[in-house]
Amino acid sequence: MDQVSMHMESTADANILKWFVEEDKVTGFIDWKATQADDVPAGVAALAELPDLQRVRIRPGQVIVTKKESAAWPNLAPALNDKIAQLAGLGQLKLAGARPLEEEIRSAVDQLLEGDLGDLAASHGGCISLAGIEGQQVSVSMEGACHNCPATRQTIDRNVTRPLTKFFPEIRVRVVEGEDGGSTGNSLPVIPTIGHPKTRDPNLDRIG
């Protein structure tokens, strides 16, 4: 088993802890919730076996764990720390390609929109949501104050396309109007596709 360099950090939510791990030891995007019955890769399943976990999110170089409200970190965190180190050392958290590409992209986009970008939109009275995915083209919907915002292109380019491109070099992102923007969007008014098919930004080392 390889030695793994990692550390844990608290977050603004007392029920969430975040582990930063060497990025080549933790790859891919997975979002497991205790309420779902879907099959997950073995590494995530091994984490999910620990008691009192509500959610486990995997993203490159990070493992983000949400505990149940009733659980206590002093009991749970050491076990998680050991388990994450063990699984990462065994290569069981290298999950890029472990699920269909569309599912991996969906998890990545959901985590982006749920994070700082979602908070930013909400603080301005708006909402950005995933409208659909077709291949490596992602459609997002801008609602509320975000609808017809003159900064839409820059916001999506900086906060969605560029972070995604680091992990999905062929990704394309466009904005569709309204809540009914499906995955094809052929008949919908569209802001021109935003994408950097071959560009990687070294400063964007993690999503969220």
Shape: globular
Number of helices: 5
Give me the strand/helix succession. Answer: EEEHEEHHHEEHEE
The chain-level mean pLDDT equals 80
**Cα distance spanning the termini:** 29 Å
Task: Please give a structural write-up.
With 208 residues, the protein is an alpha+beta fold. It folds into 2 domains: 84 residues, Ribosomal Protein S8, Chain: A, domain 1 (2-Layer Sandwich); 95 residues, 2-Layer Sandwich (GMP Synthetase, Chain A, domain 3), CATH 3.30.300. The chain has 5 helices and 9 strands, in the order βββαββαααββαββ. The strands form 2 sheets. It has a 5-stranded antiparallel beta sheet with strand order 1-2-5-4-3, with helices on both faces. Strand 4 and strand 5 form a beta hairpin. The C terminus is likely disordered.
Topology:
Blueprint lengths: L5 E5 L5 E6 L8 E4 L8 H7 L4 E7 L2 E6 L5 H17 L11 H14 L1 H8 L2 E9 L2 E8 L7 H16 L4 E5 L13 E6 L13
Parallel strand pairs: 7-8
Antiparallel strand pairs: 1-2, 2-5, 3-4, 4-5, 6-7, 8-9
Short note summarizing the structure:
Helix content is 30%, strand content 27%. It has 208 residues and is an alpha+beta fold. It is globular and about 50 Å long.
